[in-house]
Design goal:
Number of helices: 23
Strand content: 5-15%
CATH topology of one domain: Serine Threonine Protein Phosphatase 5, Tetratricopeptide repeat
Largest sheet: 5 strands, mixed
Radius of gyration: 51 Å
Structural class: mainly alpha
Shape: elongated
Order of helices and strands: HHHHHHHHHHHHHHHHHHHHHEHEEHEE
CATH class of one domain: Mainly Alpha
Strand order of the largest sheet: 1-2-3-5-4
């Protein structure tokens, strides 16, 4: 950030420095280039920035060179359509314009830049800097109301983006603005806000800058003790930072406070210190302040000749610097002192010089008023042009909206017609597919019912027919054994034959039970599956863990037998193919859903292989689940076992 542009008359009496902020002014690492290096860079956004920052070093001593590089950066930005680069040109060019007193041109540039940033180009920080620069230009032109309005807008933006540096600048500039308006209460308010931010930032220079404006406001409000404390702090900061300007500001402020308190000796002391420091640093504005302060202090002490000598030197300095406001005030004081000394001729001469200077100031004021009127007129014209352009754009926008609406309407009608035809075709196709599925489902249901009926018949035949015959044979053989005398070998063979007959009868009962389990008919699905799992567990082939969640309520008979067959098929598959040792069977009967989970720790299979689960076992399971309008999810990978999860809708 740089603070180079200030009006001398505004500077004298308080530390008013109006900051013209370039948009890269707060970057920690400015780009350093020389002219030959610039020409070697390709035309891009970095070169635009480099041109601006390279030109910045020529602002004070070689303004034409600075203008050349600024214009170069702007031209490149326009060439590559870098809109933000064109806008930030204003932050640099206005410094040169302000130094030349071309405030109206500077205002126009800042307004053009702000319009670009308000359109959405750049960052919120760019927008805030643009607002601050416009406020500065209105302050230069003397429209303090407009300046305060833009400072407050900038403060709102920087508060949103939480940029403490810019926020402090806004508040500090507002404080200096209210000094000009002689609204010292607001000066104190905004300077205090700026100081609070500076304290949080732990930035000593920012603290000192804010304290100077705060001390000025308190001096005008006759809060002299607080003012002196603030100036003491500023002086200490100046010493610590080795900044003679801050030290001289503090000395001048203390001298002013004691002069207001009519304490001539103390005022004389601080103005002498100020004169000593300003002569050492060769800074003419502070030399002039010191001599005018000494002149007034000597007058308070009745030492008119010494005071007159200091004021005459202050007038010479004011004349050389073009500080007409200060020169006018000094001439009037000298005229009063000459009159007090009894030299009416010199007093009259100085009064005439005072009036001549006042006329020059009035002429300058009129010129400033003309510039201000011109700037306001241009601003109004610009707003009117923008209003006309916005109205034209709005009209074209509505025309475009109507045209687009008509096109959209035609497209919607066409799309709806196409959609209607397509939906009819889809519905017809869906109806055909549904009929085919229904036929397939009816066929599946018929096949399953036929299979179960045949199983039931075959199970009854085995149990009642073959089972009865085998039981009769066993009874006959048992009776024969009691009536026959057999050798030991034949007795053992006879006993072995009876045992095999028992095994045959047991196997026949197991087959009959498997084909139509009695537990399913008598006790229900949960107990039947548990009985089936216990039977497999008893063989020692698998360790099965069975879990039943919810009430084991009865379901429709065909539903129960299909679910039972699903479990039966899954467990048979595991015993045949999985080489598993552990199996979990879990049934959750919580209507309206029945959930079945069967997991094993076997070999698993590769699900990415289409042929891996194409066997009859899983195919039967899928068809049965589909028959019950359920869902099946199979998760498996080689060597990691298999998990089958089935959900079937059931009635309460």
């Amino acid at each position: 950030m740089k603070c180079q542009c200030f009006m001398l008359q505004g500077f004298l009496g308080y530390a008013l420095l109006i900051c013209c902020l370039p948009f890269f002014g707060l970057m920690a690492q400015p780009i350093k280039q020389n002219s030959s290096a610039l020409t070697s860079l390709r035309d891009d956004s970095l070169k635009v920035i480099a041109c601006y920052q390279y030109g910045e070093q020529f602002e004070m001593n070689q303004p034409d060179s600075a203008r050349f590089y600024y214009q170069m950066g702007k031209n490149i930005a326009r060439k590559i359509k870098y809109t933000r680069g064109e806008a930030i040109y204003a932050g640099y060019a206005i410094v040169l314009l302000n130094n030349e007193g071309k405030y109206s041109e500077a205002l126009k540039l800042t307004q053009e830049a702000l319009q670009i940033f308000e359109s959405g180009v750049g960052t919120q920080r760019d927008l805030a800097v643009g607002l601050i620069n416009i406020a500065n230009e209105w302050q230069y032109l003397g429209d303090l109301e407009a300046a305060s309005r833009y400072y407050l807008k900038a403060a709102e933006v920087v508060a949103k983006i939480k940029d403490p540096k810019l926020q402090r600048i806004c508040y500090n500039n507002l404080a200096s603005l209210y000094i000009e308006l002689k609204a010292y209460g607001k000066t104190i308010t905004y300077a205090s806000m700026a100081l609070s931010i500076a304290e949080k930032m732990k930035d000593d220079y920012a603290r000192a800058s804010s304290m100077i404006n705060l001390a000025t406001g308190k001096t005008e409000e006759k809060q002299y003790s607080e003012s002196l404390i603030l100036y003491d702090t500023v002086q200490n900061i100046g010493k610590r930072l080795n900044d003679p300007i801050l030290e001289m500001d503090a000395l001048n402020g203390k001298g002013e406070v004691y002069a207001r308190k009519k304490n001539g000796d103390s005022a004389l002391y601080f103005f002498k210190k100020l004169l000593e420091s300003s002569l050492k640093n060769k800074f003419s504005p502070y030399i002039m302040l010191a001599r005018s302060g000494l002149g007034n202090a000597y007058w308070q002490l009745g030492r008119l000749q010494e005071g007159l000598q200091q004021l005459l030197q202050a007038i010479t300095l004011a004349d050389s610097m073009g500080a007409l406001l200060e020169k006018k005030n000094y001439l009037l004081t000298v005229a009063d002192m000459q009159e007090a000394l009894g030299d009416t001729g010199l007093a009259l001469a100085y009064r005439k010089a005072y009036e001549k200077t006042a006329d020059s100031l009035l002429s300058q004021s009129r010129q400033r008023d003309i510039l201000l009127a011109e700037a306001r007129y241009q601003s109004t014209q610009r707003k009117q042009q923008l209003t006309v352009q916005e109205a034209l754009l709005k009209k074209r926008w509505w025309q475009l909206i109507l045209l687009l609406s008509a096109l959209i309407g035609i497209l919607i009608i066409g799309w709806l017609t196409y959609r209607n035809i397509t939906q009819k075709r889809l519905l017809q196709k869906q109806e055909i597919e549904d009929l085919e599925k229904e036929k397939m489902l009816l066929a599946s249901q018929s096949i399953l019912r036929g299979q179960e009926a045949e199983r039931s018949r075959f199970a009854r035949d085995l149990h009642d027919g073959l089972g009865g015959m085998l039981s009769g044979i066993k009874l006959s053989l048992s009776a024969m054994k009691g009536n026959m005398i057999l050798t030991e070998n034949y007795a053992q063979l006879f006993a072995s034959t009876l045992d095999k007959l028992d095994e045959t009868m047991g196997e026949m009962r197991r087959v009959a039970h498997s084909m139509m389990p009695e537990a399913l008919i008598r006790l229900g699905l949960g107990e039947a599956i548990q009985d089936f799992c216990s039977g497999i567990q008893a063989t020692g082939k698998l360790n099965i863990s069975f879990q039943l969640v919810g009430n084991s309520q009865r379901l429709p008979a065909d539903t129960e037998i299909v679910i039972y067959r699903i479990v039966q098929e899954l467990l048979n598959n595991i015993m045949k193919h999985a080489e598993a040792t552990q199996v979990l069977v879990q049934i959750s009967m919580l209507p309206p859903l029945l959930s079945l989970t069967v997991e094993d720790n076997g070999l698993g299979f590769d699900q990415t292989n289409p042929a891996s689960d194409a066997g009859a076992g899983l195919s039967n399971v899928r068809s049965r689940v589909e028959y019950l309008k359920g869902k099946i999810d199979i998760q498996s990978s080689e060597g990691m076992g298999t998990s089958v999860f089935i959900e079937i809708p059931v009635e309460r």
